[in-house]
Amino acid sequence: MTPRNPAPSPQGPHRGPARLLVVLVVLAAHAGLIAWLARSGREPSAPRAPSAAPRAIETRVLAGVPPTVPVPAPAAVPAAPMPIPTPTPTPPTGARVAPAMPPAETPAAEPVLVAEPPAVLVPAPAGSAEVELLPVAAAGAAASEPAALQPGTAATQAPDASVVPLYPTRLPPAFTLAYAFRRGPLGGSGELRWRPGPDYLLQLEGRAPILGTVIAQTSQGAVDAHGLAPQRFTDRRLRRSEQAVNFQRDAGLISFSGPSTTHPLVPGAQDRLSWMLQLAAIGEAAPGRVRSGRVELFVVGARGDADVWSFRSAGQETLTVGGQPLQTVQLLREPRRPHDTRVEVWLAPDAHHLPVRARLTDSSGEAFELMLEALPAQLRK
Fold first, then answer.
1. How far apart are CA 206 and CA 81, in angstroms?
2. Are strands 354-361 and 367-372 parallel, antiparallel or unpaired?
3. Contact (CB, 8 A) for 82 and 105
């Protein structure tokens, strides 16, 4: 048999060229699209120069490091911008990295401080190991203040030697003098006893009817080139406990049994009783000074007070003592401040300049007065 040939497809001979034509059309369309994109600016442009905009910062969280908590600044002070930390470079593999320190917090605004004046050292009185610290202004004020020292205040410097001079003295012989005394409405009798020697003793006692002893003062100490040098003074008043003053000459201090105040021990310093006999000794050695000059004494009381008593002559006056006239010189200490004591004393040049009359008036106006009742014949010159 003769084999039969299959009938050819109507499109068989044209299938290959048709496919090729389709591929070419697709490629041409792609090429046209690419060209159109290039002309419309869609194609990526060249790299641009870096702008000033801040770049993204890579941050890492380190184990064990607390996060930074920004501290707001006070309302009155504008907050400063937070600094941008520099990225920490990545350490090489295997390297040991020290633990990072926590970032410092933004400090809060500090208050404005007023500068204090510098301080100076003012030495304490001789014999004391303490040194007092004073501001410059206070030290200058202390230097310009008068030599008066008030009760209850610590002394920072001794009175100037030019303000409290030293005098020649000539002490009287031993005596016991009788006085009439008066304190306001209260009156009575009293005695002033003087026992000279290397260790002297001076006592004043006043008694009133019914009440008994209303005042008892004792001064004891030594005698040096400047007259009386008290070592202890005691003062006892009616219905009051005894108070004492100690003149610590080894330490150069004056201390008290009551207040904790101390004062420097000035050469020639006297207590509230010895001043009368010291004035008499100065008048006996230099009569012209008490008659027409001025005498200044540093006087200390039992309650912590200490001051310079400046006496000026107030003239001569004749007083009657024991029925006989006696010529006297009056000395007056005027108060310098509201609470100072006014002091008047009348000395008898013909009786070793002993005190014939004395009157002390306090700030309230109440006076304590002594008046000599009789003068022993042996004390008259």
1. 86
2. antiparallel
3. no
Distance CA 278, CA 172 (A): 10
CA–CA separation, 257 vs 220, rounded Å? 16
Dihedral of alpha carbons 308, 359, 312, 356, sign: negative
Distance CA 366, CA 194 (A): 27
27 φ/ψ angles, rounded to the nearest 5 degrees = -60, -40
The CATH number of the domain covering residues in 175-379? 2.40.360
Q: Which among 258, 331, 361, 345 has a CA at the least distance from the CA of 301?
A: 258
- One digit per residue, the tens of pLDDT, for the chain of length 381 reads 444 454 444 445 555 666 777 667 667 776 666 665 555 544 444 444 444 444 544 445 444 444 444 544 545 544 555 555 555 555 444 445 444 454 445 444 444 443 443 333 333 333 333 333 233 233 333 333 333 444 434 343 444 544 789 999 999 999 999 999 999 888 999 999 999 999 999 999 999 999 999 999 999 999 999 999 999 999 999 888 999 999 999 999 999 998 899 999 999 999 999 999 999 999 999 999 999 999 999 999 999 999 999 999 999 999 999 999 999 999 999 988 888 999 999 999 999 999 999 999 998 899 999 999 999 999 998
Taking the C-alpha atoms of residue 29 and residue 11, their distance in angstroms, rounded to an integer, is 26
DSSP 150: -
Residue 293, token pair as written in the block? 């000059």
Residues 315, 332 contacting (CB under 8 angstroms): no
The residue extents of the domains of the chain are 175-379
Tell me the C-alpha distance between 241 and 233, whole Å. 14
Q: Is 17 helix (H, G, I), strand (E, B) or coil?
A: helix
* Chain-centre distance for alpha carbon 56: 61
